[in-house]
Write a structure and sequence with these properties.
Helix content is 19%, strand content 40%. The protein contains five helices and 16 strands. The strands form three sheets. Strands 1-2-3-6-5-4 form a six-stranded antiparallel beta barrel. It has a six-stranded antiparallel β-barrel with strand order 7-8-9-12-11-10. Strands 14-13-15-16 form a four-stranded antiparallel sheet, covered by helices on one side. A hairpin with a 4-residue loop joins strand 5 and strand 6. The N and C termini lie far apart (69 Å).
């Protein structure tokens, strides 16, 4: 009997002084998180079909040659290059799978990258959890910022993280990390008329995408886009008393993309005329 009590006593000590501290150490310091995740983060150098150049961000995830980013970053791409913090530069040969509605895409790199794949967190995170974003805001590559999950919102029928992290153009597609250095989502959009109010797509919305298919090249994607029927957009009102009118061909993605970014956070009324029919839509651009 005394022997059994003796071992029970030491078992309690083992759980108290070994297991509990390990659990408490699960949250890493910001410095450790940055060091851990940096090999997986990349800057995307994108040239559009019209020759415009801009940058976005992405993260190596789901495979050692598959990057995750926001679909709008590459939707009209002619060429895409991935640049890593160690100076390695790879061509992105195409898109494996995308979900335009949720604004996520899987990209295929020209070759695998060893020891760079990020760890994905598959569970939805709690409101008020501390988070970190690493990306290329305004072209300043591999910058880190922190914040909180302000709320989990339903946007267009889907859950999105509302973040307090400062996010700027160039951060689109940036990975959002938890305190263990795991990817919890991808930066998608931000409200221009609010402070530190940005939104990210949770990992649950891209881990279900198919990574086994053959990637479509940028030429193939461009051909798909160019086959869409033309639609005229007129009477685009930017929340002003006088209607600002312009006509745009829906095939001109670059023009529409510029209008979109200029209109984020504004109230917009769009009148769509097609085949003799007129439809009026009022919404806030997000």
């Amino acid at each position: 009997m005394s022997v059994k009590l003796h071992w029970d006593f030491w078992l309690v000590l083992l759980v108290t002084f070994v297991v509990v501290p390990i659990g408490l150490q699960a949250a890493l310091t910001p410095e450790k998180i940055y060091q851990r995740v940096l090999p997986s983060v990349m800057t995307l150098e994108v040239e559009s079909q019209s020759g415009e150049k801009f940058v976005g961000s992405a993260v190596l995830a789901m495979a050692d040659d598959v990057a995750v980013t926001a679909w709008h970053v590459v939707a009209n791409a002619r060429t895409v290059w991935a640049v890593f913090a160690d100076g390695q530069r790879m061509k992105v040969i195409g898109c494996i799978h995308q979900d335009a509605l949720r604004d996520v895409a899987l990209l295929k790199l020209e070759r695998p990258r060893s020891h760079g794949q990020a760890t994905l967190c598959r569970e939805l995170q709690a409101v008020a959890a501390r988070i970190y974003v690493v990306g290329t805001p305004k072209g300043y590559a591999f910058s880190i910022s922190d914040g909180l999950i302000s709320q989990i919102q339903i946007v267009d029928g889907f859950r999105e993280y509302q973040l307090s992290c400062p996010i700027s153009p160039g951060n689109s597609g940036s990975p959002i990390f938890n305190q263990r250095g795991e990817v919890i989502g991808i930066a998608s959009w931000t409200k221009s008329d609010a402070q530190n109010m940005s939104f990210a797509i949770p990992t649950q919305d891209f881990i279900r995408l198919n990574i086994s298919g053959d990637p479509r090249t940028w030429e193939q994607l461009a051909a798909t886009n160019s086959s869409a029927p033309p639609i005229k957009l007129i009477n685009i009102r930017h929340g002003q008393d006088n209607a600002h009118e312009e006509t745009a061909d829906a095939r001109s993605f670059t023009a529409f993309q510029k209008w979109y970014y200029d209109s984020i956070g504004k109230s917009v009324t769009v009148v769509v005329q097609e085949e003799g029919r007129t439809n009026i839509f009022a919404f806030t651009v997000k």
